[in-house]
Amino acid sequence: MTIRHIGKVLAGIGAALPALALAASLTESITTIVRALSGIINSLIYIAFALAIIAFFWGIARYVWSAGDATKASEGKNIMIYGAIAIAVMASVFGITRVLQDTFGVNPNEPINVPRINQP
Length: 120
Prior knowledge:
Elements: H1 3-64, H2 70-104
Helix pairs in contact: 1-2
């Protein structure tokens, strides 16, 4: 290997170092963004659950207030059914998520350690 080749290798390594520093800060930025989005999604899940419960009770109220009108009673039933289905689906997803967390030993309050390849 000549001095010219060694110089090119060192120049290449020197050019790659800022990219490595950028990758570290980019990883931290992505982690911050993912945590923020996770908080927003968790909030939206609770809001959706609350809306499903409100829809269910609104369907009950519409059914009771229909006063014998078949179309209004039918609308109330449909709202109740869709509200009950939404509640059941969301509760099932929460249950399945919990079972998977317990099965694989994942604690939702701790970060997940991603396996990495050790480089020499």
